[in-house]
Amino acid sequence: MTATAVRRSARTSPSPRKPRPTYRWSSRAFVLPALAVVVVLLYLPFVWTGYLSLTEYDGLGDPEWVGLAKYAEMFTDEGFLAAVGNTLLWVVGTLVLPVGLGLLIAVLAHDLEGSFWYRLPFLLPYAISGIAVGVIWTFILQTDGALTQALRFLHLPGTELRWLLDAPLNTIVMILAATWQGAGVNALLFGIGLQSIPKEPLEAARLDGASGFTLFRTMTWPMLAPLTTVVVGLSIVGSLKTFDIVWGMTKGGPGTSSETLALSMYKASFVDHDYGLGAAIAVFLTVVTVAGSVLYLRRQLAPAREL
């Protein structure tokens, strides 16, 4: 057989097939129960909620199809617009106060011996439920409450302020209550991040003359960026669905002056029994939360993908 015939025979002869791995399908089978739970408990309820948002439904009888009427009603309602503004205020306040204060506590306690014990008092309020936090701070901030009496006893200004009755003051003091509850866990997370930073780059920066805020800005903060992305992302999602503290302190009042989107959704559904409007607010809140989270994470993770 000539060399040409050998080459032709090699080209025409079928190459042996590689056995298809079966372990992939067997491993995927273990994921199916968890996937089924997610579909049943998350996706199907969202689809049903989306359908209800296009109907008039009070919980009795069959839903009546009204199209986008509930969305039109939602966007023209002054209470809903106030809830959007309050929710945005919660987002900004949550990022500035609980996250910022948690970072400050973690940085100040990092180099101290027994730093965990310095962070522990700030962490304890996180073990209290949001409703309990609301009850505690209502006792402090209510009309002629503990704070007003303390200011009057010390002859300090502020006794005339109605902490929970005037907007936007009521939303601001509730953000302070949420800060009291959430700053400690942020300090714990940032403390873990600081402990994971290698010491060699910091020591090299100190030898080059960096110290204090300069060392933090140029070395520590960039190396905390991955953890900061997680903490800020969780804070954004948590602030967008704020409910328990507001319900425990003001129930959204007076009127709708301190309502958030989550509270508006609850009142429309379970107080006014307008399930179509409540579903429309729920869909809007879900879309805003998912869109905000995706845009933030894509913006933060884009530099990492470019490396």
Automatic annotation (TrEMBL):
Keywords: Cell membrane, Membrane, Transmembrane, Transmembrane helix, Transport
Subcellular location, record wording: Cell membrane
Biased composition regions of type Low complexity, renumbered to the chain: 1-15
Bilayer-crossing regions: 29-48, 88-108, 120-140, 172-194, 215-237, 275-297
CDD domains with a match to the protein in the record: TM_PBP2
Membrane topology value: Multi-pass membrane protein
Pfam families named among the record's database cross-references: BPD_transp_1 (PF00528)
Region Disordered, residue ranges: 1-21
Residues making up the signal peptide according to the UniProt record: none
Domain named ABC transmembrane type-1: residues: 84-296
Family: Belongs to the binding-protein-dependent transport system permease family.
Protein name, per record: Carbohydrate ABC transporter permease
Organism of this sequence: Georgenia alba
